[in-house]
Design brief:
Blueprint: H1 3-13, E1 17-18, E2 21-22, E3 34-38, H2 45-63, E4 67-72, H3 79-86, E5 91-94, H4 99-108, E6 114-115, E7 124-125, E8 128-132, E9 138-143, H5 146-149
């Protein structure tokens, strides 16, 4: 693999930023691309339904070397409520600053809509999906457009 390929692989592993520091999405597998899923919060029936389905697919995603991480702008104290309602057991991140949404847009072109909502100091990140190959190439991305859906 060329140095450029190695740099790209390192970039996707550290794409998610939270509270000013970068962390590795895949600590154990070199070819384990992150599969970030943005959801509104524990109170959203659409999001909880989606997370239930995602949990049911987690073994298949993992066996295909994917690494699921769910992200919300909701406060961290609500993550247990999301887990209880959805049955989701994987990595979950509270990002009330919406820093991760900015990183995903800058690095991968995923334009996550941030809308005003009571209880969300910096706005609420709307549902979005990003699927990457191990080399960091975008396989699929989707972000809800609230005005189109409403």
């Amino acid at each position: 693999m060329s140095d450029g390929g190695h740099a790209k692989k390192q970039e996707y592993r550290t794409l998610l930023s939270q509270s000013g520091f970068l962390f590795t999405v895949s600590e154990t597998k070199a070819d384990n691309p992150p599969f970030p899923q943005v959801y509104r919060g524990h109170w959203c029936p659409f999001c909880i339904s989606y997370l239930k389905r995602l949990q049911s697919l987690s073994e298949q995603i993992s066996s295909s070397n994917g690494s699921i991480v769910i992200i919300t702008a909701e406060s961290e104290e609500n993550l247990p409520k999301t887990r209880q309602a959805s049955g989701y057991t994987g990595r979950a991140i509270s990002d009330p600053e919406n820093a991760i949404a900015g990183e995903l847009k800058q690095r991968f072109g995923l334009d996550i809509n941030i809308t005003p909502k009571s209880g969300y100091a910096n706005g609420m990140a709307q549902p979005a999906i990003l699927v990457l190959k191990p080399d960091g190439t975008v396989v699929y991305n989707w972000a809800i457009v609230p005005k189109v859906v409403s």
